[in-house]
Amino acid sequence: MGTDTPKDLVPVTVIAGYLGAGKTTLINELLAHDHGLRLAVLVNDFGAVNIDAALIADHDGQTISLQNGCVCCSIADELGDALDRVLALEPAPDQIVIEASGVADPANVAAYGQGWPGCRLDAIVVLADAETVQAKSRDQFVGELVVSQLRRADIVMATKCDLVTGAGLVAVVGWLAETAPGAPILTHRAGQLQSELLLEADQDINATSPKRSLNGSTGTAESNFDSVVIEVHDAVERDRVEAALQGWPESVLRVKGILRFHGTADGLHIVQRVGRRWSVERAADSFNSEHRGKLVVIGLPGTLHHRDLIASLLG
Amino acid sequence: MADMTVFVARTVRTMEPSLPVAEAIAVRDGRIVEVGTLDTMRPWLESQRHEIDDTFKEHCIMPGFVDPHLHPSMAAILLPMHFTTAVGWDLPWEDIGPVRDGEQFLARMVSLDTTLAPGEPLFAFGHHPIWHGPIDRSDLNQISTTRPIVAWHRGYHSITVNDACLRWMDTDTAAAVRHPQVDLDAGKFFETGLSVALRHLRGYLLETERFLAGLDRMRRVIHHGGHTTIGDAALGFYGFEQEWEHLQTVMEQLDTPFRVQLMPFVMGPEGDERSDDEFVERVLAYPSRSTHRLRFSDHVKMFADGGFFAELLMLKPPGHLDGRHGEWMTPPERFEAVARALWNARRRIHVHCSGDLGVELALSTLEKLQWERPRFDHRFTFEHFGISSSQQVDRMAAVGAVASVNAYYVYELAEAFAARAVGYERASQTSRLGSLERAGVRFAVHSDFPMAPAKPLNNAWVAANRLTESGAVMGATERASLDAAIKAITTNAAYVLGLEEEIGSLRWGKRADFTVLEADPYEVGAAALRDIPIWGTVFEGHKFPISSD
């Protein structure tokens, strides 16, 4: 029986949401986006993926390789088979994105990310068409499904927000927040992808600052998120950290860091939070003990107060 | 040598309203020449070289039984396994008694372990916690520490394995620990966790030699049930071309005493509107592949909600007892779009629907399509028909629908569903047949084998009696009449498959397919239907006794 350490595992993001929620549009944007990552995107239907022919380096029927190092791969019949295919790529992908089927329970798809050999789950992102989601939630056949998908979300992303009025958007965001309590509600407009929120691999805790500025320099307009780096030199109380990860408001969108806990001799721990999902895991041995404790936190503009964050971690 | 064979019988039940009872059937070249008595047949007897075959002079000849909905490929995977179900299975090679409780379950596993060659994996199908209690890997380790053991759940969606099997599957322990649907301590892989296990097991289960042996067992099961025609209700689950290849290898042998009507299935992938036409094109191309025993026609299969045994049915309010939701197998919007494309291409659509919301999706789609482009005789068929309402039945009648019902749900599941899944009122009306009969909706009953035993007489018995395994009657008003129950495995089953001009009853010109019984079902009555011994079958004029098999 094999074993692996958290470091070896490729993070998996599940993009879910009912038919018409904008999953394919988002995935097309992710593939074409200049994020500098090697993404492997698993889709239900190749036919719907619309990739600029100039970007395609190779197409073998099951997998489309792009010039930017990303691959797009058809799930065809078996999600597990598709995962095995992309995990076998050399070099390995930085992150895997799975497009869930529109009628799938996102938790069932996420289970692959959690437990397929070689993977771990980063987050479940559930998309909702800002124009139609409320009507869909009352539909005789799919109403319950639409609502239960939203309740599985770590992050909810309202899509097609450019198609609704300002007041309409406020109303739908309010409804989403009520329907998916605890999950941050992001808004998406066509062509304005916020990949730093969707992709964990974007956050590099070994760098002294976030890999790149998050304030609009990613080439997408209106990508305005705040980011703070918290240096934690000493050991901290595990209970406190867990309470903080659990208790920070929805406006804290992503947290990734490495910390040493009091009273544990077993080295460093990786802490993460994406939307309302958080975890604390022992770091791989390859993280040497010299490593300084540090957290990178991304949140909505104006909501991250360095001192408050430190206070809730350290007391 | 005679050109014509005349079979004489104590009774011939033709299932033809114009001549319901006869004494003799003349057969030439695999087809019926005439049905009647030796006296009324005299013009034929005088003009044809013939022989009289009185093998059945003490028997009742029925039209060859038809089960319009079962799954040969799924059976091919399951039949090589060892059955440990709470309800016994009378299989041609083995009469497996019921395994009623946890103690009997472990005893059966121990005895299976002693019969297998060292190292051969033991696959046991049929564990169910309601009857057998929980099991975990330590229980299975006690049976063997060296032989891989897989205990497969009766509902198919989970397995429990021992340590030897974990090693055999080269289990990634860390991944298994992280997986929310793998309980490594218990050795249990369920729902999506099952995919992790199947990653290794699939190769073994689908290995050609094993699969062909499974299909061959399937062939014997079908013959023993007295069938001469079956419907494969979803060809292509494990890979269309491979299944098609294997089916030809096994089913087209000269001694196969039945034909298979193949229904390709369509599950609409999402997001690609262009694919509707591609489906239609593909479906239209299948009939050119038909062989003598394996045939495609204008019938296609679609899926609405999830399965009944798996408890993934979609329900209208008040839903499931525990508040769970079922599953759509096809997104409702796609369902409608694909159904429209198939409807407009004049296909006959069969829809798998288990719960009343699944029925509602199929029914409201059919109502819409009838409004847009009315069709007569479209044979839109509701398959399984687990939970429904009598109002839905009236609407089905209004738009010309037919039904192919899994009556067996009542026998094995109605009581458990009453207690644990949907409450008594709906569970007792599972597989409503009385309402269909009163509304004039034609219906067949099917086994969905390997979900239920492939025994048409047993299905007709459940339909007409609605007795459960414990002996209780569930929903007496939803019983089918004796006549409707027999039609449901003969004429109406042929009608559901669109083969009524060729099989399903006995009259001139039809295929000489008979099921030969030791007693006349109309004489023994509904209560004794399942106990009637079957002599065997006649397929296209050739005798196939069960005793020689």
Write structural notes for this entry.
- The complex is a heterodimer of chains A (315) and B (549).
- Chain A is an alpha/beta fold.
- Chain A has 2 domains: 6-200, Rossmann fold, CATH 3.40.50.300; 204-314, CobW-like, C-terminal domain (Hypothetical Protein Yjia, Chain: A,domain 2, 2-Layer Sandwich), CATH 3.30.1220.
- Helices cover 25% and strands 27% of the residues of chain A.
- Chain A contains 9 helices and 14 strands.
- Chain A has helices at 23-32, 79-87, 106-115, 133-136, 143-151, 166-179, 195-198, 238-247, 306-314, and strands at residues 10-16, 39-43, 56-59, 63-66, 71-74, 95-99, 119-129, 155-159, 185-187, 226-232, 252-260, 268-274, 277-282, 293-299.
- Helix content of chain B is 35%, strand content 22%.
- In chain B, strands 6, 15, 16, 17, 18, 19, 20, 21 and 22 form a 9-stranded parallel beta sheet that branches. In chain B, strands 1, 2, 3, 4, 5, 23, 24 and 25 form an 8-stranded mixed beta sheet that branches. In chain B, strands 7-10-11-12-14-13 form a 6-stranded mixed beta sheet.
- In chain B, a hairpin with a 4-residue loop joins strand 11 (149-153) and strand 12 (158-161).
- Classes of the chains: A alpha/beta (315), B alpha/beta (549).
Give the topology string of chain A: H per helix, E per strand: EHEEEEHEHEHHEHEHEHEEEEH
Structural class by secondary-structure content of chain B: alpha/beta
- Oligomer kind: heterodimer
- Per CATH, the class of the largest domain in chain A reads Alpha Beta
Q: How helical, in percent, are the residues of chain A?
A: 25-40%
Radius of gyration of chain A from CA coordinates: 19 Å
Query: Tell me about the biggest sheet of chain B?
Result: 9 strands, parallel
User: Which sequence of strands runs across the widest sheet of chain A?
Assistant: 3-4-5-2-6-1-7-8-9
The domain tally of chain B reads 3
In CATH's first tier, which class of the largest domain in chain B applies?
Alpha Beta
- The gyration radius over C-alpha positions of chain B equals 24 Å
CATH topology title of the largest domain in chain B: TIM Barrel
Strand content of chain A: 25-35%
